[in-house]
Design goal:
By secondary structure, the chain is of the alpha+beta class. The protein is built from 8 helices and 5 strands. Helix 5 (117-137) crosses helix 7, helix 5 runs parallel beside helix 8 and helix 6 (155-164) packs across helix 7.
């Protein structure tokens, strides 16, 4: 059975400070996130087409080591019609590096972490994996679907996610794959390619 999740998936740098579900969070006290995701807020938000849009916002940072992989993901995301934005830290909860919204197929990178190219790369992979999960379920229906059975994910990542999301059990099956993908080269790109091509036969879902 396909599982309905919240309208957003997110990347955190450490354990969340609050135990609320993020869905409750954005629908209660965070008008800034809702404003960002809806597109009503424009200040400090810009669309990203390639790595130069990221590097121009942090000219003293060397993004050359991540440029090829990030550009590949951005190019495929464009084909899938998912928009990527760089947004000011004021729109994000503490420690959140990125957010993907299934309601309008947009994801946002937190500009606070621009000084750390590795963090940007990991966040692109993580949120890109959520895009692929969304695509597997049907990208316009606000749902995510598992694209890799957790038995194929190293135990260290499964344990970490279960600890971080202990108060949000519905997120755990989807975050295990995303956390593993964030530190594993090319798997997010493969998932996005599968999404674009409409082929998921090589992903282990059983």
């Amino acid at each position: 059975m396909k599982k309905i999740l919240t309208i957003i998936a997110s990347t955190m740098i450490l354990s969340p400070v609050n135990a609320e579900s993020f869905n409750d969070y954005i629908h209660s006290n965070s008008h800034t996130i809702r404003c960002m995701i809806s597109g009503r807020c424009k200040d400090g938000i810009k669309e990203i087409d390639d790595i130069t849009d990221i590097s121009s916002s942090s000219p003293d940072t060397d993004f050359s080591m991540i440029a090829v992989e990030v550009n590949k993901m951005l190019n495929t995301l464009k084909k899938i019609k998912v928009k990527v934005f760089l947004a000011d830290k004021k729109y994000f909860p503490v420690r959140y590096r990125g957010i993907y919204s299934t309601s309008n197929n947009r994801f946002f990178l937190n500009s606070k972490y621009l000084h750390n190219p590795r963090s940007i790369l990991f966040t692109m992979r993580h949120e890109g994996w959520h895009v692929a999960q969304d695509c597997k379920a049907g990208i316009n229906n606000k749902r995510l679907e598992i694209i890799l059975n957790e038995k194929y994910i190293p135990q260290i990542y499964r344990d970490y996610v279960e600890k971080v999301y202990t108060g949000e059990p519905d997120h755990i099956p989807f975050e295990k794959g995303a956390f593993w993908a964030s530190v594993t080269k090319d798997v997010t790109q493969w998932a996005l390619d599968a999404c674009y091509e409409g082929s998921y036969f090589y992903f282990h879902v059983n």
